[in-house]
Amino acid sequence: MKHLTEYRSVELVEQYVAELHRTATRPWTLMEVCGGQTHSLVKNGLLNLLPPSITMVHGPGCPVCVTPLNLIDKAVYLAEERGVMLCSFGDMIRVPGSQKSLLDAKAAGADVRILYSPLEAVRLARENPHRDVVFFAVGFETTAPANALSVLQARQLGLKNYSILASHVLVPPAMEAVMQDADTNIQSFLAAGHVCAIMGLDEYLPLVRRYGLPIVVTGFEPVDLLQGILMAVRQLERGEARLENQYVRVVRPEGNPEARRIIGQVFETVDREWRGIGTIPGSGWAVRPELADFDADKKFAVTIAKAPECPDCIAGLVLKGIKKPHECSQFGRACTPERPLGAPMVSSEGACAAYYHFASVETQDVASLQISKL
Amino acid sequence: MILSCPMPKLDFDVITLGHGSGGILTHKLLEAGVFDLLRNPLLDTHHDGAMLTFGGPVAFTTDSYVITPVFFPGGNIGELAVNGTVNDLAMCGAIPRYLSLSFILEEGLTMTEFWQVLVSIKEAAERAGVQVVTGDTKVVERGKGDKLFINTSGLGEVHPRAAISSRRVQPGDKIIVSGPVATHGIAIMSVREGLAFDTTLESDTAPLNHTVRALLDEFGSGIHLLRDPTRGGVATVLNEIARDTKTGVDIRQAAIPVLDEVMGACELLGLDPLYVANEGVFLALVAAEVADRFVGMLQSLPYGESAAIIGEVVAAHPGQVVLTSRIGGRRVVNMLVGEQLPRIC
């Protein structure tokens, strides 16, 4: 495990934890934006190692969790009613739509396939010229280059049977939305390292200035996260507000200009609805009008009435960091990964699922909940 | 691929519905291939079943094999069907003796493929020291099966010193894993559609009965429980044990052997090796006083070189598995929900 072992070193973790205990003199509330970071914090039991004065709030950075219900309904409709070969990343297919998930549609006979790359879907389109192949292109800035590349590749190959159902979301507008919420108490952000590897650092500077808070671009391993938290807390303790990059081994200040060029060829910025949060201006990417043939939404002209969300699910409050997953009355009771009421309980990047799967032994009442189910 | 037993000359190349009719074609198929290849006095009677004699307690198990793809790095469905059932018997503390072998073949399966599977069944049975004594063949229409499905049932004599039972599990017992986990599942995933990635990984499918028998000879009732963490992986089996025995299970992430390449693939695919399937690994819960000697001996036996103590049974948190992460955090390890699905980013 080259380049990973050192970021999981027990000695380094202990050093950073000790340093955090020395550094934090007051209560601080930080938000890690990215679901991958939430997953890592909980999975590695890091939250129990932090000083009690530091509260980590889990942000809306789970692309699966924020994909609108209506779009999942559209994907199900395309697979079931229009007979397309619907290809998707794995954790998207278990997310409940208003009636069913893609997994339910698959069980009922629809052609739903789990792929790791949209380029695989292009290959399937080439091999099955008489089938329409649709790739469910969800994700943050991280997955956009590959999704854009698949469209360019399909166009170059002259494929008429490939399109994407796109629901790309962008991190900085979501952070903005969190800060504009009257109930927010976030004092600093850990920004998502992988997103910045594509987009670079500049787009976070306005947030630092406007809200006067430290933002630390952070990686995903235990040592990365603790280092990122320490950098943020040091700034907070000194009353500073700067943009820092903890993840220098991956993130260059300018990001990846070539990837952004490819994104720009295929996508344009639009207002986007976030499940559980609502519409955030300029927070998404949609396929450019001149590539409408590759935009499943336009190609199949799907209109599906918007279904209401489950009234018992507080996903929006969880995604904005206002409530912790286990503060929901349904958590672990009516809402479990087997029977999720909302998306954050589905994806392993979702805060609710992370809390459920990796319940920390000391702090969780999930433990007693689960024992009562035995 | 060179087969150790060349395929007999046949006047058909693919399996047709007629081969499942019970008539001439069925006989041709069996006479030309199956019976000759798997010869033994009990099978040679060609009766509706095998008449067997046992002197003492018997363990009995059954398992069906529906793996995709049928041929995978490091093996195929045939040896899996032998090893899997042999290992289930071994986990009961039994010495496997006899197997039944039932095929459900899909119309259109080529004889070449079927023969490859049969040969690997023969070789696996020889390695495990078991005899196939009865069987059945059915054919389903094209599209109703995935090349072929296999069911094997197995009978074995319970080892005279074995006392394997979840009732014997108690706080203080050490939990031992016989080898690196998640290898089989990742090897299979590496050749699945949409997932294919380049790897030299091979399935760890193996017969564990000789290894287990040697351990039973030596430690007898010091071995409280044996489990075969196939589907659902180590995490699922440990959860079952914790629930069944109303004890707690504590494991240490750093102690669990995982091949580097498997770990890398798990990182890439967003999978937790604790939940990935194994085919040549077992878990043993043994009395604390024999644990070190048990691991020492296991490391000297086939398929046990990387054996390690990964944790223990505790009185705290009954019904739950708790993992201490490499960096000292503690968390609950739950049962898997549905299929392990890869993460997006």
Automatic annotation (TrEMBL), chain A:
Q: Which domain of life is it from?
A: Bacteria
Q: Which UniProt keywords apply?
A: Iron, Metal-binding
The answer on whether this UniProt entry bears the keyword Iron reads: yes
Q: Which InterPro entries match?
A: Hyd_form_HypD, HypD_1, HypD_2_sf
User: Which BP terms from GO are recorded?
Assistant: protein maturation
MF terms from GO for this chain are:
4 iron, 4 sulfur cluster binding; carbon monoxide binding; iron ion binding
Give TM segment ranges. Answer: none
Give the NCBIfam families listed for this entry.
Answer: hypD
Q: Which family does it belong to?
A: Belongs to the HypD family.
Q: What is this protein called?
A: Hydrogenase formation protein HupD
Instruction: Write down the species.
Output: Spirosoma montaniterrae
TrEMBL record, chain B:
Domain PurM-like N-terminal: from-to ranges = 47-158
Gene3D superfamilies in the cross-refs: PurM-like C-terminal domain, PurM-like, N-terminal domain
| Residue intervals passing through the bilayer | none
GO BP terms: protein maturation
Name of one Pfam family that matches: AIRS_C
- SUPFAM superfamilies on file: PurM C-terminal domain-like, PurM N-terminal domain-like
Name of the protein in question: Hydrogenase expression/formation protein HypE
Organism annotation: Spirosoma montaniterrae
